[in-house]
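All the exercises in this workshop are built on plain-text protein records. A record pairs a protein's sequence with a compact description of its fold. The structure tokens are whole numbers drawn from a learned vocabulary of backbone shapes. Once this layout is familiar, the rest of the handout is easier to follow. An example says more than a description, so a record of this kind follows.
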Amino acid sequence: MRWLAAILLICLALPLWGQEQSALARIDPDRSSLIAEGKDRGKPRPLELRLAISHPVPYRVYFLDAPPRLIVDFREIDFSSTEPAALAGHDLVPGLRWGRFRPGWSRLVMELSGPYALATAIQSLRQDGAGGADLTLRITPVEQAAFKPRGNAMSALRDLPTPARVASGRTARATDQPLRIAIDPGHGGHDPGAEVGVIREAAVMLGFARELSEVLTRAGYEVIPTRQDDSFVPLEQRMTVARGGQADLLISLHADALPAGAAAGLSIYFWDQDSDDRAARQLALHHDRSDLVAGLDLTGTDDSVADALMDLARQETQPRSEAFARFLVSALNRSGVTMHRHPVKGAAFSVLKSPDIPSVLIELGFLTDENDRANLFDPEWRRHTAQSIASAIGEWAKDEAVRTSLSRQ
């Protein structure tokens, strides 16, 4: 089922290309190349891989380490008629190979001379009338600390508190220390999120996150932003930022797009891997699409040990996430903020997977709904919503203190 979810996720990461092609795509070596930018001074240089293929295909890109290498998985390209040595510029890297690696999937592996990061990944229809598509991947050298090779399920367990600390709750801190709230504006950088005309979800959420952060700071909370500009932050790194700041609560902000009439109004989500809500499944695919391109697919592992450990940690964390969602609904109701008819739902959003930090994702509205769109650009609506979130945090914190006190008796 995880591979099925990943496949669906990849497909939604691409534009609609028309009717599905029945034949496997093939590479055109005469139109494909690997290019290095700048002069060769003995150091890693930015690289651009251009692949001309007979028709568009779903793909995902990620990095592996030891040795560093770029991996591109396709569904599916028939590489059997072309050797890697036929690619112009193949000798710019230590090694290049490709081929079919499992039913329905083919893979390109490019060994690298050092750590790199993905700068752009674009697949576009060819404009010269010849048909087919061009896939262009640009990667740039980075310092080792900035290298983000593909994670696995175990990586979500890094820096977890000890079992005793989990049991006592992360909010059990000195009373003179403010609660730490991680604010996560969704998308960013090469992933703009939902787009309606010139409106980009990533920009709208960054603006609201700044307003919310100001309200929370004035209310006495410490804010931990996962991004502060229009930059791309992988989902796993967002959790890492929250954990590194010892966040007591993570709030991810979105304003997505669904087919007209499919959804409207503010909604609040908590982690539920088994959610069967159709709209939630669609949104999960949209939210996670960027990490397939960046190579940090949190769903693509089969580590039963890690899954079991995370499920164990969530037994204590999950009820706290759901409790905050209920407090938030109450605060929003008091402020008269319009919500979805079923405002609290479970969903398999990867950013909510942290097993040790209570986490919720707030869909502030849907850019595809006219009323929601107007709300998102209404200063009064944003102010009421931000203040409601702050009020809910305060009520939730009091409930946490009582719960922690009872757990110590």
Remarks:
- The chain has two domains: 23-146, 153-408.
- Residues 1-22, 152-172, 288-306 have pLDDT under 50 and may be disordered.
- Residues 328 and 392 are 5 Å apart (CA to CA).
